[in-house]
Each structure stands twice: as structure tokens, then as C-alpha cells.
Amino acid sequence: MARKIEGTRIQSGLPERLRALRERKGWSLNRAAEEVGVPPSTLSRIENRKMSPTLDLLLKIVRTFDMHPNDVFSGRPDQQEKQEISVSRASDPALIELPNLFYKHLHPDMACFNFRAILITLFARSVEEYGGLTAHSGQEFVYLLSGKLQVHLEGHPLVTLAPGDSIMFTSSIPHAYVSAGDSQAKLLIASSSEEDVLQVKFQK
Fold it and tell me: Parallel, antiparallel, or unpaired: how do β-strands 185-191 and 166-170 relate?
């Protein structure tokens, strides 16, 4: 059965990051709330970890601050300078829970690199549940860790992956990922684009 998640749960440094972005702009809580379009009490509760924002509210925050979603969700706002090495631990809490998938950007502090490493646990059982076909710039590499994955590529035959299989394609081809096994699919994505699964979903 597909898992449908109505809300959005963020296990990351969103409250601290949101406060840092607001203060960097020199905005009071009231001003930021006005720009986002919510009561000041709502932003206050998010910043104080008393409320988990909905996907719609997260979208408003991302657009208001003109940021990539990973800039908002990063738990390390003070580590944005260029780095040469980054280590990601299994215990790192930067998990984003969206409808029908869990999303974890493995190295959000390495924005200087020209690709992104993303770990996804996928519950979507149809293209519609995934959110439809999406397309963006760059190239995409997908390695299936567990489960069974269907890769839908517009104008191309359906590709089915088993654990250990991989696929690489041009991301401008409209595509969608669907979990096709008895359990959710877990996949590692390397994307050369500055856009990725999270950003494309936030632009919908």
C-alpha cells in the first residue's frame, strides 16, 4: 500500500535557518510574517520548534526568501563557505518528509560542487502519486539500494530496476519514479543540476 503523507515533517535545522535568514534580511518577526502571508505567531512557533509547517507554508517561505529549498533546510547555516571535504553520517537528522517520499540531501554544505547527492525513500505507487512527470536541466544518475523501482521516461520504454541496478539520463527528459515492489524503494540520486527532486516539487 502506498504511504500518503498529508503534511510535511522536517527533521533538520529549519527553525534556526529560518531565524538566521530573517535576521540577515533585517526583518522583524512581524515583517517576515507579512511577507510570507501568515500570522506572526505561526512563524514564531516554527522558529521555536512548536509547529511543523505544511508543504504549502514551506513553499511560501522558500519563495519569500528567494532561496533553494536546501538553503532553508540546511542545519548548518554558518558553514556556507567553500569546502573540499564533507562527511555525511547516517545519524544526521536532515530528513525532509514530503507526500509519498522521504528526502535527504546528503551533503548540503557542499553547494560549491557541481552535483548533488540525494537519498530518497519512495512510497509513490503511480506517476500521479509521485506528482507527475518532471523535467529540469542537467543529468541524473540513479542507483537502487533496495526495493523495486520503475523509471518512467517520456517517449521511452519503461525501465525497471532491481537492487544494484542503475540508470543515467538527461534530466530534460520528463521523468518520474515509482516504487513497484512489496516495500518502498530506496534510491541514491546524483544530479548535476542545481535543481533536484525537492526544488522541482516546490516549483509545481
Answer: unpaired
Given its phi and psi angles, is residue 19 left (phi above 0), alpha (psi -120 to 50 degrees) or beta? alpha
Rounded distance between C-alpha atoms, residue 142 and residue 154, angstroms? 17
Summarised one tens digit per residue, pLDDT across range 96-139 is 776 688 888 888 777 667 788 889 999 999 998 887 888 888 89
Looking at this protein, which amino acid is placed at residue 187?
A: L
Q: Give buried/exposed letters for 140-164 (b at 16+ CB in 10 A, else e).
A: bebbbeebbbbbbbeeeeeeebeee
What is the C-alpha separation between 118 and 110, in angstroms, rounded? 12
Helix (H) or strand (E) holding 169: strand 166-170
| CA–CA separation, 91 and 60 (whole Å) | 29
End-to-end CA distance of the chain: 25
What phi-psi label fits residue 125: left (phi over 0), alpha (psi between -120 and 50 degrees) or beta? alpha
CA distance 26 to 22: 6
pTM over cut 0.70: no
